[in-house]
Amino acid sequence: MTTEQTGFLTNRQEMRLFWRRLTPDRAVRATLLVVHGYAEHSGRYGNVYDALLPLGFQVFAIDHQGHGKSEGKRGHVERLSDFVDDLHQLYREQIAPQLNAKRLFLLGHSMGSIVAMHYAAAHAGELAGLVLSGTGSTMAGTPRLLTFFAGLLSSLVPTMAIKSPFKNDFISHDPAVVEAYTSDPLVFAPHLTVRLGAEMYRGCLEGAAKLGQLELPLLIVYGSEDSSFAGQNALFDRYRGQDRTIYCYAGARHEVFNEIPDIRDKALADLTAWLEKRC
User: Fold this and answer.
1) Which fold does the domain 3-277 belong to in CATH?
2) Of the listed 67, 70, 226, 228, which one is catalytic?
3) Given 42, 110, 137, 228, the catalytic residue
4) At 141, is the pLDDT very low, low, confident or very high (cuts 50, 70, 90)?
5) DSSP state of 165
6) Which of 106, 187, 212, 243 is buried most deeply by CB count within 10 Å?
7) How far apart are CA 129 and CA 251, in angstroms?
């Protein structure tokens, strides 16, 4: 039987951040740290947890500040590096003591993939591999005018709210997934602050550049109909590590692990096979 442990850490900004640890009912072979995306939370990754726990993976995840059950203004961050710092605090306080020489993999989705790029660049020595989902080298789906104004207003009125350009169904073709996302009280789409918008856009470009200097085992997964990111192949092609894999799922939108069953099951099978090979 899977065991779930939850708790809160207090970060350097004195915010209480929610985290979770799921432990399999068999010997642990490796650990996965999940980094969720914008507007959502760590509780939306049940498909990933359910696929990996029976295989002996323990899983850690955190709700970013301003997200989920964590404190902070909804949809806001002062600097993208604050997310990275919070993640590393979770590593120091909760994950490292539980590793017992087992390998640690990092999975970042969407905004979480941007955070994961920066985290891997700063802490590559802690990781055995990196998985990026719903990612790319640019956030091409964001209108240029919105990006321009977000950058301009970020220093003037950083907490000003703006509307996301994406409708909720951009995440998946599965109506049940979209409905659950829309009705989830811990999901605050479609609003974010201009500071977070500017930090995500800048962070994506800088993160892609940093990623190109790493040599960790890398897996990139994305949907052919993802409207929020672009440049997945560019991200892959300039990666200098020799152990690199990319999967594009035809007909999938932003969340390949939450797509219709045929796509979801294939994406989860590819993820688990990739991780097991590198344990």
Assistant:
1) Rossmann fold (3.40.50)
2) 226
3) 110
4) low
5) S
6) 106
7) 27
For the question of residue 110 being annotated catalytic, the response is yes
pLDDT reading at 172 higher than 80: yes
Long-range contacts of 270-275 (CB under 8 A, 24+ apart): 270/221, 271/48, 271/51, 271/52, 271/107, 271/131, 271/219, 271/221, 272/51, 272/52, 272/55, 274/129, 274/131, 274/219, 274/245, 275/30, 275/32, 275/52, 275/57, 275/105, 275/129, 275/131
**pLDDT(150) > 90:** no
Q: Tokens 């970013």 label which residue? A: 64
C-alpha span between 86 and 208 (Å, rounded): 21
At position 259, the amino acid (one-letter code) is: E
Q: What are phi and psi of 245, to 5 degrees?
A: -140, 140
Q: Which region among 83-87, 150-154, 239-243 has the lowest average model confidence (pLDDT)? A: 150-154
pTM, two decimal places:
0.95
Domain range annotation of the chain? 3-277
pLDDT bracket for residue 142 (50, 70, 90): low
pLDDT band at residue 133, thresholds of 50, 70 and 90?
very high
DSSP three-state, residue 225: coil
Instruction: Tell me, yes or no, if 137 is annotated catalytic.
Output: no
The alpha-helical segments, DSSP class H, found in 77-167 are 80-90, 96-99, 111-122, 144-154
